[in-house]
Every structure is written in C-alpha cells, then in structure tokens.
Write a structure and sequence with these properties.
By secondary structure, the protein is α+β, with helices and mostly antiparallel strands. The protein has a single domain, classed as Aminopeptidase (3-Layer(aba) Sandwich). Helix content is 32%, strand content 29%. The chain has four helices and eight strands. The chain is globular. It starts with a strand and ends with a strand. One of its GO terms (molecular function) is acyltransferase activity, transferring groups other than amino-acyl groups. Keywords: Acyltransferase, Transferase. It holds the Pfam family Acetyltransf_1. InterPro entries: Acyl_CoA_acyltransferase, Bact_Acetyltransf, GNAT_dom.
Length: 190
C-alpha cells in the first residue's frame, strides 16, 4: 500500500510505502521516531495539563518500547511508513505498533508521523494497514488510548470506526490523567 504525489518544485514522484515488520533492521530508525514522538508528546502534555513536570524521559520510554517490540508475541508488530526521497534512499516518515492484549484483542500503540510528512495521508495509511493486518491475524477487537492534545489522531480514529469507551484494564495511562485521556475501541468483526 502506498501513496504517490508529484513534487511541484522538482517534478520528481515521491512515494511512501507502509511496511509491516519486526524490529530487526529498523531499531535505529524507530528509536529516532519514538524519541521525536515522546519529546513532542511531553511538550504538548506540559502545555495541556499546565504542568512542567508532565512526561517521562523519552530515552527510558523508548528503551522500554524497543524491548517490548523485540519480545512481542505478534510476529511483526511494527508498521513503518518509509518515504522514498531518491531512488535508493528511504526515510521513516511515521510508525504505529500493534500489541497483543489477549487472543482476540490487540492494542494500537504510538501512531506518529513526523511533522514534515503530516497532511499527506500517511497516518491514515498506517492505521488502515494496521487494521487490515490485525483482522488477518484473527483479532476481533482493537483498543487504544489517545492523549487529549492529539486531536488529529482522535479524529482519524473516529473516521476509521473507533468509538470512545471507558478505560481498559491493560492501559498504562497513569491514574491521575485517565479522566482526560481518551480510550477507544473498534470491532474488526463487523
């Protein structure tokens, strides 16, 4: 699955393709993406909650994420949007992750598109690719938590059939922010 656009300045066709993979071979790229994600999320969270102490060390969270992905119970839990800049150069433009909660339920994690690639439909491509893969893997339900300041992600998830629900037990959202956090669910059997 990929999207194409014509760059009016150079008239080169640029492409972005979503690949489903495991961590092998992509650890450095994913580490950089996730650090960017958490730095941005921490800044947004500080502003939203008016709390300069909001957030955690991006390096610590990223290390835990990479460890979780390396030991995932899903064969290929990572979806990367790779943007081809030149014939041989691909840059990661975004990512999303799938985490097994139980035999029929999975959790959507860490949708992120780098700012320079936003507005091109890459986030939608990532989520749609994840939806198709989760369905093919036999999952019946997807769950996720989304920050109140991630309005674009909330909107996209809603457009793709996710609905707001109460918090779920497996969520790692701290108790002090759960009332502000959005929890969503989508059936894959309908």
């Amino acid at each position: 699955m990929g999207s194409f656009r014509l760059d009016r300045q150079t008239t080169d066709v640029k492409t972005t393709a979503v690949v489903r993979t495991d961590l092998d071979g992509y650890e450095d790229e994913l580490r950089a993406l996730l650090v960017d994600y958490f730095v941005e999320a921490n800044e947004q969270g500080r502003a939203w909650f008016d709390d300069e102490e909001f957030g955690a060390s991006p390096e610590e969270i990223v290390a835990a994420d990479l460890e979780r992905l390396a030991s995932a119970t899903i064969e290929k839990p990572l979806f990367l949007a790779l943007h081809r800049e030149k014939r041989t150069e691909e840059k990661p433009a975004g990512s999303i992750q799938l985490k097994r909660l139980d035999e029929t339920t999975a959790e959507v994690k860490r949708l992120y598109v780098r700012p320079s690639y936003r507005g091109r439909g890459i986030g939608r491509e990532l989520v749609e690719s994840l939806l198709a893969a989760a369905r093919a893997d036999g999952f019946e339900t997807l769950r996720l938590g989304v920050a109140p300041y991630h309005e674009s992600a909330r909107s996209l998830y809603g457009e793709l059939g996710f609905e707001f629900t109460p918090a779920y037990d497996e969520s790692h959202a701290p108790a002090e922010i759960r009332d502000d956090w959005g929890f969503m669910k989508r059936s894959l059997t309908e």
